[in-house]
Amino acid sequence: MLKLKNRIVSIQTIFFKNMMLVAFTSVVLWSLIWVFFEYSTFLTESESIRKHYLENQKTLLKTEVSNLLSYIIEMKKQIQGDSRKNPVSRDWQTDIDAQKEVLMRIAHLRFGTEGYFFGSTDTGEPLFSNGKITIGTKSVWNLTDPDGVKIIQEQKKAAQNPEGGFVHYRWEKLDSEHPYPKLSFVMRLPAWNWTVGAGLYLDTIETTIAKKRDELKVGLLRKLTAIFFILSALFILIFYWANHISGKLHKAISTFSSFFERAATRMITIDPEKLHFKELQEIADGANKMIIEKQLFLEEKIKLEQQLRQSHKMEAIGTLAGGIAHDINNILSVIIGNAELAAYDIDELDPVLKNLEAIKISSLNARNIVRQLLSFSRQTDEKKAPVNINSIIKESIALLRSSINSSISIQLNLAPEMPLINANHTQIHQILLNLCSNAAHAMEQNGGVLEISTRLTDANYQQDDSETQSSATSPLLEDLSESKQNVNPGKHILLSIRDNGHGIDPGIMEKIFDPYFTTKETGKGTGMGLAVVHGIIKNHNGTISVKSTQGQGTTFDILLPVISDTQVIISTPPQTDLITGEGHILFVDDDKSLADMSKDFLEHLGYKVTAFINPVKALAAFREAPDLFQLVITDMSMPVMNGKELIQKILEIRADLPVILCTGYHDKINHNNAKESGITKYFEKPVDNFEFAREIHDIMVKKYR
Length: 705
Prior knowledge:
Layout: E1 2-4, E2 7-9, H1 11-85, H2 95-106, E3 110-111, E4 115-121, E5 126-129, E6 132-133, H3 151-159, E7 165-172, E8 179-189, E9 194-201, H4 204-263, H5 278-344, H6 352-376, E10 385-387, H7 389-400, E11 408-414, E12 421-423, H8 425-442, E13 448-457, E14 472-473, H9 475-483, E15 492-499, H10 529-539, E16 543-549, E17 553-561, E18 584-588, H11 592-604, E19 608-612, H12 615-624, E20 631-635, H13 643-653, E21 659-663, H14 671-674, E22 681-684, H15 689-704
Parallel strand pairs: 11-13, 18-19, 18-20, 20-21, 21-22
Antiparallel strand pairs: 1-2, 3-4, 4-5, 4-9, 5-6, 7-8, 8-9, 10-12, 13-15, 14-16, 15-17, 16-17
Helix pairs in contact: 1-2, 1-4, 5-6, 5-11, 7-8, 8-10, 12-13
């Protein structure tokens, strides 16, 4: 007992009152400081919230529109691919039918809570918007917002950028007549002259800020409520349980401190049983859920990032291949052309002629490598020709032998005198390298035998009894051996690739042809190999099946139809003499070496040639004397003005003038669409000089005689 101011006060009371006072004052001051700090922080970060929100919306719009455009392009390929594969029974008679089908599939697509897609033609004709197909409705070319922004016209300008562009304007919502600020991202589909995009209203940022403010208020209320209960408990228990509670609180706080320190760098959880307070146990449960959800989120994020990296990798390979092809083909054109020009002036017995021929052959081999690169990146026409599959196998094995483990032996069991198949040489080569590389990977630890065999069979495909039966069979093999619905009548070549590696797990057999599915370690597989193989074989009217027994090996069987006896293959004997002619040719190529070589070559054939390396100067010279020239030959990729633009301007002056377009590589023009642009003949560099000379002669004769 203590006597204070003539009053006897117990230690319990003093302790209780002082503890309550200290606790109450501390909590109140801390609460006020926290509220002031949080509110100040909220005010300073409001603008940052707006900026971050806008950037996030831009990223969302760009991603969604890019995905939509990729989806449209893929559907277009599939639809037109089906049309080319089944020309008799196809339903797609025109490109318009394909466009309508694509619109039916994408019109309803949405994203987020308010995001929607829209599309229109380059002339302002609406296609679809907000889940509805709008073909045939009023033109929106002059659609203007309250600030005078020509919405559709601005969207078309933005879409001219290959990467797409953003457009800001104001427009009414469906449930309001008041215009709100809006952001759209648009991209262009050149093949159909479409502009597609997506839009979001930006007023939701204020809603986001208001929501954060409400969350702050709710948080304050919760804090104050918690403080009230804590103070009440302290008033009741402080005297009896102060030391006890202090000890437990200290232990609990230490446990939490240790947990958060470790959780900052490692995905660990806290054991609620170590905490003696219900509130702290609930917090621990929430923290554990947060850690688990974060772990799941990160795993899913990593998976999606891996898929995105693979997609970007394939896209980057395609872009790189195109750029490399253009430059290398120009260089090869100069090498081949000059080698041939030099050979024309050398006696047949001169030993130098042999060296020039070696230069030409090596350059042509380099050209084939470039074409393989473009074929891998799917940026070149997949031309097919009669080929001998045994020859391709031998060529592929010669390349593969140096890249696989020496403990793996390769056995070839190729049937002699195999008939020809109508196929793309590079793609068959790609199939063999992919399947053989997979087989070698399955045997790299213990070694083994890679067996490649071919034999002739018919549509009634049956496996030999001697072949090992599979413990897991894919649906493709069941279709092949039972229903035969995917195999056309007639003779086929059966190509079998067998290994005695670890085999394929039956649980994943049905997934092996799915894109991005791989069982290899990170960095050793893209998950695209078997998907590409399946697509190539399907494009060749063939069928692939797989049998595998774990621990014993895997066999891939491929059926490819042979060229029937009724298919006559007309082979043109190699041309040994260049066809000459006469006339005045305007030649344009920005590569000076190529322009000089081509000028010498054409003059060697008897033509008069005016060559330019600047397309603008070439156009000016043509305008001064349009009747002086009988033929125009131009490159495609040139600065300031490309070949297609040059041709269009020349044909505006002389619509009857024949033109030849040459290109090392360009993704916007090919054999199929060249004639639509008024081009008489299309050549891919490096050109065959004999064919080039013949085509020029034929054009001159047909046009002027």
